[in-house]
Write a structure and sequence with these properties.
- The structure is a homodimer of 408-residue chains.
- Chain A is of the alpha/beta class.
- Chain A folds into 2 domains: 172 residues, Acetylglutamate kinase-like (Carbamate kinase, 3-Layer(aba) Sandwich), CATH 3.40.1160; 145 residues, 2-Layer Sandwich (VC0802-like).
- Chain A contains 12 helices and 18 strands.
- In chain A, a hairpin with a 4-residue loop joins β14 and β15.
- The radius of gyration of chain A is 23 Å and the shape is globular.
- Chains A and B meet through α1, α2, α3 and α4 of A and α1, α2, α3 and α4 of B.
Chain lengths: 408, 408
C-alpha cells in the first residue's frame, strides 16, 4: 500500500462529466490499495471568467482581493469532486488551502509555500478518506488568502507529497508525458521514459509547459518522486528522477523553446562596479522577471548589457531601462520583442564536447542567424528571430537524432 | 460619527455595474463621517448556478461539501466590491465568514451563529478601512465552512452589528421599506415609518419577505437598531424598533398573508393524553414545518386535530398522517391545499377590544368563509379559500383604514 498524491488540472476537471471520471480514477487507485490525496485546479474557463469580472471593475485589481476572488475557482472543484466521491460511497473530504494551513508568504498572486501542517490530512487518511485539496492557494500568517499564481496547483501537489512523504506525486495533464520537444512542432518527437530533475527544470523554465517549474524545484529539493501522466488515457507517463550513477544518460534529452521572449540592450554604459545591479535593480523592483543576461565589455571603458524578459513586460521594462540609461549616462537603449529562445537540454552534455559546435553548425546550415547565446552546465540556449522558431527546433531535433531512443 | 453595518442582497450586487453603485453608496456613507461594515450576498443567479452544478453530481449532495461550494458565491462578491472601493481610493478589505471567525454550530446548510470575534474588524475600522464581509457563511469549531441557509446574509449583518455594537444595521433590498400589506394586492398600501420587532416577526413569518425572520429575532435579542431601505432609491425606509412606552401604537400595523399553505385534518381520534405528540411527532421527524395547529374536542370521546404546512410538503404530510391515523384508530383524514392565511398584526391590538369581531364582520360582509382561526397576543390569523386572498386583504386594509398614517 502506497500513499499517492494526484493532481488534476483545469482541463481534467473542466465539466461535471470529467469530474465524475476523476472520481472513478481515484476510486480505482483506492481499490488498488493506495491512500490518495488529490489536488485539483479550477474548472477550465472558470479562472478566466473570474479574472474578467475583476478586470471589469479595475484595470489593476487589488492583489489581495484578486486572490480572494480567484481562489473560489478551486473551491468549487474540491466540493464537486468530493460530492462525486461521496455519492459513490467513497468517504472524502475537501479542504481549501487555508483549511489545511498551506502557509505562504504574503506575495499576493504569486505567493510561495513556506509550510504545510499535514496532521489534519493524515487523520483523514487514517480514517479511510480521500482528501481533496484546492490547488494554487494558501494563506499567509495573518490568515489572508493567497494564490501561487497560474499553474500553482502542481506546486501544491508536490508540497503536499513532500509534507506527507508520499510514495509518488502524479501530475495528470492533457499530455501523456514529457517529450523530446513539442510534437506540434516536430511530429516525430518522442516521449521520454524518464528525465532528471535538472533537465526538467531547464525544459520547464524554457517553455515546455507540462509542469510548473516551481513544482519541479520543490520535488527535487524534497526528494519527491514525480510522474507526469495523461488524465485521459492509460500509460506510464514520464518519471522525473535524480540522476543515477549507473544510468546511461543521453547526451541531449530534449529541446525546449520559448515564444514569449523580448530582449533589451543598454549600449555604452560607463563600466563601473555595481552597474549590473543599477540596471537590473529597478527591473526587479517592478516585479519583472529577467531570463537571460549577457554583458560584453567594450574597448572604450563602456559596456553593453543585454537581457531578456517576458514579452508582456517588454514595454514596461523598456520604460524603466530608458530612465536608468539617463541616470547612468549610457549611449542608447535598443530592444526587440520579435525573438524566441531555443534550448538544448541534457545532463549528458557535461561529459560530451562539441555539442555547441554541432548546434551552431546545424542552425547556420539553415541560414538561421543567432542573436544571443547563453550556456549552463546542462543546456545551451540561443535567441533567434521569431520566424525561425519551428525551423530551428526541427533542425536541432534531427541533428541530434532525438526521434530515436538512446541505446540501453 | 456612527458605526453602521449595511447589507446588500443578491439583486443589489447582481452585476458589476450594481456592485460599482454599492461602492458609491458606501463611499457616500463614509464621506458623511460614518464607519462602515458591509455584508453582501452572492450575485443574483450565482447561488442557483452553484446549486445546479451540485445537483448534476448528486441528487442529495453531501451537506459539508455543499457549503464549501455555495459559500464561494459571496466570496466572489466581497472581492469585487472591495476592488471597486479600492479603485476609488477608498481603503477596503474583504473577509469570508471563516476569516472573521463567524463561529456557527455544525448544522451544514442551516447553521446558526454562536459567536463572532469582531477584533479584526475593529482594527480595520480604526485603520480607516471599509470592511466587506461575506454574508450567509461561517465556520464551525473545527474550521469547516458552514452556511446559514438562504437569506442568511441578513442574519450575518445583524450579528455583526450586535458584536460591534453598531449604531444601526441597514438592510438594503429591492423595496423601500415595510408596507401595511403587499402593494401588489392593495395599491394604496402605506410604507410604515417604524414597526416593532414583535410585529415584524409576525409579518416576516407570515410571508412579508422583506427580512429573514432569524435576523429580526437576532436584532431584537441583541438590541440592534434595524432599518430596511431601498438599494436603488433614496429614502428613510422603515425602522424596526422596540415598543416605546410613550409611543402611540396603531391598533393594526399591517396585514400579512401566505399563499403557500395547506391544511390537514385528522378526524375522530380517540382522545388520549399524548395524542398531539403522536400526530405531530412523525411530521416533525420528516422535517416538515407545521404552522397553525387547532384541536377541538368532540362529544363522543374523540377529537379533531387540524394543522397547516407549507404547500410543498402537503403530499408527504398527507401520507404520514394517513399512516398515523391507522395506528391511532382515527376515523378519517382530510386535507385541502387550496387555502391561504391572512393575518392582522399590531402590538396595539393588545389594548383594544373588538378587533376580531371587526375583522370577522368585514370578511362576512364580502361573503368570505373563514375555515380556521388562530390568535396570538399581537395577531389574528384566518384561513380562507385561496380565491378570496386578494379580496380578503383589500377588505381588511379598508376596514382598518391602513392607508392613513396614524395620528401622531
Amino acid at each position: 500500500m502506497a500513499l499517492i498524491v494526484q493532481k488534476y488540472g483545469g482541463t481534467s476537471v473542466g465539466s461535471v462529466e470529467k469530474i465524475e471520471q476523476v472520481a472513478e480514477k481515484l476510486i480505482a487507485a483506492r481499490e488498488a490499495g493506495h491512500d490518495v490525496v488529490v489536488v485539483v485546479s479550477a474548472m477550465s474557463g472558470e479562472t478566466n471568467r473570474l479574472i474578467e469580472l475583476a478586470h471589469r471593475i479595475a484595470e489593476n485589481p487589488d492583489p489581495r482581493e484578486y486572490d480572494v476572488l480567484v481562489s473560489t475557482g478551486e473551491q468549487v472543484t474540491i466540493a464537486l469532486l468530493s460530492m462525486a466521491l461521496i455519492k459513490r460511497g467513497c468517504p472524502a473530504v475537501s479542504y481549501t488551502g487555508s483549511q489545511v494551513h498551506i502557509l505562504t508568504d504574503d506575495a499576493h498572486t504569486k505567493a510561495r509555500i513556506l509550510d504545510i501542517d499535514e496532521s489534519r490530512i493524515r487523520d483523514d487518511l487514517n480514517a479511510g478518506r480521500v482528501v481533496v485539496v484546492a490547488g494554487f492557494q494558501g494563506r499567509d500568517e495573518h490568515g489572508n488568502i493567497t494564490t501561487l499564481g497560474r499553474g500553482g496547483s502542481d506546486t501544491t501537489a508536490v508540497a503536499l507529497a513532500a509534507a506527507l512523504q508520499a510514495d509518488e506525486c502524479q501530475i495528470y495533464t492533457d499530455v501523456d508525458g514529457v517529450y523530446t520537444t513539442d510534437p506540434r512542432v516536430v511530429p516525430n518527437a518522442r516521449r521520454l521514459e524518464r528525465i532528471t530533475f535538472e533537465e526538467m527544470l531547464e525544459m520547464a523554465s524554457l517553455g515546455s509547459k507540462v509542469l510548473q517549474i516551481r513544482s519541479v524545484e520543490f520535488a527535487g529539493k524534497y526528494n519527491v518522486r514525480l510522474r507526469v501522466l495523461s488524465a485521459f488515457e492509460d500509460g506510464p507517463g514520464t518519471l522525473i528522477t535524480f540522476e543515477e550513477e549507473n544510468m546511461e544518460n543521453p547526451v541531449i534529452s530534449g529541446i525546449a523553446f520559448n515564444r514569449d521572449e523580448a530582449k533589451l540592450t543598454i549600449l555604452g554604459v560607463p563600466d563601473q562596479p555595481g552597474v549590473a545591479y543599477r540596471i537590473l535593480g529597478p527591473i526587479g523592483e517592478a516585479n519583472i522577471e529577467v531570463d537571460m543576461i549577457i554583458q560584453n565589455i567594450g574597448a572604450d571603458g563602456t559596456t553593453d548589457f543585454t537581457f531578456t524578459v517576458h514579452r508582456n513586460d517588454y514595454e514596461r521594462a523598456l520604460g524603466i531601462l530608458t530612465r536608468t540609461a539617463g541616470e547612468l549616462g549610457a549611449r542608447e537603449v535598443v530592444g526587440d520583442d520579435n525573438i524566441v529562445k531555443i534550448s538544448l537540454v541534457g545532463v549528458g552534455m557535461r561529459s560530451h564536447a562539441g555539442i555547441a559546435s554541432t548546434m551552431f553548425k546545424a542552425l547556420a546550415d539553415e541560414g538561421i542567424n543567432i542573436r544571443m547565446i547563453s550556456t549552463s552546465e546542462i543546456k545551451i540556449s540561443v535567441v533567434v528571430d521569431e520566424k525561425y522558431l519551428e525551423l530551428g527546433v526541427r533542425t536541432l531535433h534531427d541533428a541530434f537524432h532525438l526521434e530515436q531512443a538512446p541505446a540501453a
